[in-house]
User: Which sequence fits this backbone?
């Protein structure tokens, strides 16, 4: 969580993330039952008290992938900065929210609110949701296709997203 709260009014992506498996290893202890094994448990193979090999158990856990997990290292340069990841960055989130990061004046996809704290009036007309979503799909067609193939589901919505950065 950052220091400033921003409000995005416009088109955004709500992606439902796949889960991935990861191993979680726990140290059970030595056969002499010396209870206290210093952290991190998983990095210690022998009991610090008696030197006996420690018994361990590994279980397979599941977690949702993050936005960054969608890209291989050599793909990040091309794709990573096109959209801005604005939601679901903490803990284990099923959904990731993404907004545009390339700002187009000709084909707007969000309302340009000033970053200062001045009072402001911006009318939202009934057509804007449709037009802004259409513009968003047009501007970000390539990355939308790319991401869609790697997530469980992807929706393009119009609404308000608040986020810290
Ligand atoms: Zn021991």
Assistant:
């Amino acid at each position: 969580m950052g220091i400033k709260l921003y409000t995005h009014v416009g088109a955004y992506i709500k992606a439902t993330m796949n889960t991935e498996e990861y191993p979680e290893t726990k140290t059970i202890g030595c056969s002499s039952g010396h209870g206290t094994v210093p952290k991190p448990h998983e990095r210690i193979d022998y009991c610090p008290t008696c030197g006996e090999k420690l018994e361990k158990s590994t279980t397979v856990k599941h977690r949702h992938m993050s936005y960054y997990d969608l890209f291989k290292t050599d793909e990040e340069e091309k794709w990573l900065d096109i959209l801005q990841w604005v939601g679901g960055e903490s803990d284990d989130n099923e959904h990731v929210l993404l907004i545009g990061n390339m700002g187009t004046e000709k084909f707007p996809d969000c309302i340009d609110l000033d970053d200062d704290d001045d009072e402001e009036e911006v009318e939202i007309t009934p057509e804007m949701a449709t037009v802004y979503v259409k513009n968003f799909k047009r501007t970000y067609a390539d990355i939308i296709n790319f991401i869609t193939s790697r997530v469980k589901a992807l929706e393009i919505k119009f609404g308000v997203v608040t986020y810290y950065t």
